[in-house]
Amino acid sequence: MALAHGRLKPYAGLINAVLRRHLPPTVVSVLAEPVENAAAGYVDWFTSLAGQPVPLRILTGPARTKAVKLLGDRLEAIRSLAARPAVMSTRALAPVL
């Protein structure tokens, strides 16, 4: 991914902090963290999860069904959090800004 003039990291950090404050680590782990390589002009993505990533598009059968459900459940938890005005207010976000 091309660098967005160094603006990616602060947002990623804020998003990660809010998620970690309100959701279990298993949910937060669905998102990789960006590490900008300014010299090369791109962003690498890292996660603390073990194993090698596998693109969803190449999974088939039960493995794909399981992955889609797991991803859907975790993203729904994140969407639910984002829909809570008390969490997303400036006042609520102040401790992580």
How would you sum up the global shape? flat
Strand order of the largest sheet: 1-2
Relative strand content: 5-15%
State the order of secondary-structure elements, H for helix, E for strand.
HHEEHHH
> Which spans of ≥5 residues are poorly predicted at pLDDT below 50?
none
For the largest beta-sheet, the strand count, sense and barrel status come to: 2 strands, antiparallel
Q: What is the number of helical segments per DSSP (H or I, 4+ residues)?
A: 5
Task: State mean pLDDT (0 to 100 scale).
Answer: 82
The share of residues in helices is: 40-55%
Rg value: 16 Å
Helix/strand class: mainly alpha
- Total strand count, please? 2
How would you describe this structure to a colleague?
- Strand 1 (33-37) and strand 2 form a beta hairpin.
- The chain has five helices and two strands.
- The protein has a two-stranded antiparallel sheet.
- Helix content is 51%, strand content 10%.
Quick summary of this structure?
With 97 residues, the protein is mainly alpha-helical. The chain is built from five helices and two strands; from the N terminus they run ααββααα.
